[in-house]
């Protein structure tokens, strides 16, 4: 995974995106340090609410720095660049030295990106405005942490609580930082409105597409599998919701009424554990062997909410083979949203789809004997290391 330092192109892009907004890095009074505490608080307060809204949608910005924050003519602060895509820790994305948190440099699920990633960057901005320089780069701090806490320095004009808030936000231990914009606001003594969960537009329900592909949602994963059975037989199986649930490790149907189900699915991957209770309905297009399973649920552990569409199409291949293409679109809101854009988690989901396909094949093959296999079991440890090994091979160019 590459680690890109801040460059002049970053500042140029910021200026181009927001004509007339001056980056803080180009304002000598801001970049030189000694900015009054009240002014730093105003800068942070302007940014906290839009970032809180972003986090409520399950996103992390990941590109906050003195060069990507600007002032308009009224003195209001704005973010000059959009959030990093596809994720702040994705391969090839920009990482601004001194402002990027350690978790942006790793796909280790023990160090996920989340709101605390932007907390680190905002605290680094405050640090720069106090002393005129950002803290040491996170990668260097990981090897040898030379960060000198502001609370231990002679810095007149700043409250001890304010300086401790900067230090806390710059902790290398992400769990020691404020975990949300609301918590950061409290640490710095500023106010920020709590964002409400976004509501789907009313017109969206009336304009739902035909069941061929999942409707657009926050995160997108494609996968599929192939089985040695005729397409009509596979299609009949794929619209039998209890049979499908039996092939999905951790899933259990509690109520079943036609194309509607209520149930529970439990998942564990690295530090992420969830047990979602929810409901789903199946929308079928029998003529084209296409369907969309639309569902929503809530995790009983973290109270995170999930909505998603699983679209699939059954296609006949030569030699009596059948291909099932799967298109997953989903959003997560709440504490688990931090995991939704991780590259490792997306690889994990694709592996789950492949294992689901093996279970489908096994149950179809057992149908002739009249004895269906038992409910599929989930080997979290085995799958975790399998996915991790595949990613390691890809990093070093040995995948094949």
Automatic annotation (TrEMBL):
Superkingdom, taxonomy of origin: Bacteria
Pfam families according to UniProt: COXG
This protein's name: SRPBCC domain-containing protein
Organism of provenance: Bordetella petrii
């Amino acid at each position: 995974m590459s680690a890109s330092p801040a460059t002049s192109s970053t500042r140029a892009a910021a200026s181009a995106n927001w004509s007339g907004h001056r980056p803080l890095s180009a304002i000598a009074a801001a970049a030189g340090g000694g900015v009054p505490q009240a002014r730093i608080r105003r800068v942070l307060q302007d940014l906290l609410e839009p970032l809180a809204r972003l986090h409520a949608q399950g996103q992390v910005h990941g590109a906050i720095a003195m060069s990507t924050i600007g002032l308009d003519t009224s003195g209001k602060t704005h973010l000059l660049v959009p959030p990093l895509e596809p994720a702040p820790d994705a391969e090839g994305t920009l990482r601004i030295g001194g402002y990027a948190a350690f978790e942006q440099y790793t796909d280790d699920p023990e160090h996920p990106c989340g709101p605390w990633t932007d907390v680190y960057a905002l605290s680094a901005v405050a640090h720069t405005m106090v002393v005129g320089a950002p803290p040491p780069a996170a990668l260097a701090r990981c090897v040898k942490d030379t960060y000198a806490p502001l609370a231990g320095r002679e810095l007149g004009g700043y409250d001890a609580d304010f300086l401790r808030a900067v230090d806390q936000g710059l902790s290398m231990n992400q769990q020691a930082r404020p975990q949300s914009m609301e918590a950061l606001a409290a640490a710095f003594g500023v106010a920020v409105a709590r964002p409400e969960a976004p509501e789907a537009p009313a017109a969206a329900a009336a304009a739902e597409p035909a069941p061929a592909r999942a409707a657009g949602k926050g995160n997108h994963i494609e996968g599929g599998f192939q089985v040695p059975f005729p397409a009509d037989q596979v299609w009949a199986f794929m619209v039998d919701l209890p049979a499908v649930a039996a092939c999905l490790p951790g899933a259990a149907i509690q109520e079943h009424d036609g194309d509607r189900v209520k149930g529970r699915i439990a998942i564990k991957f690295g530090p992420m554990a969830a047990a979602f209770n929810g409901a789903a309905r199946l929308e079928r297009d029998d003529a084209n062997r296409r369907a969309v399973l639309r569902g929503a649920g809530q995790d009983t552990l973290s109270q995170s909410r999930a909505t998603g569409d699983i679209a699939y199409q059954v296609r006949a291949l030569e030699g009596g083979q059948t291909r099932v293409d799967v298109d997953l679109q989903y959003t997560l809101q709440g504490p688990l949203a931090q995991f939704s854009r991780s590259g490792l988690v997306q690889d994990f989901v694709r592996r789950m789809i492949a294992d689901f396909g093996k279970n489908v094949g096994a149950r179809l093959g057992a149908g002739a004997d009249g004895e269906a296999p038992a409910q599929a079991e989930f080997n979290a440890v085995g799958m975790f290391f399998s996915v991790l090994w595949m990613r390691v091979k890809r990093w070093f160019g040995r995948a094949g």
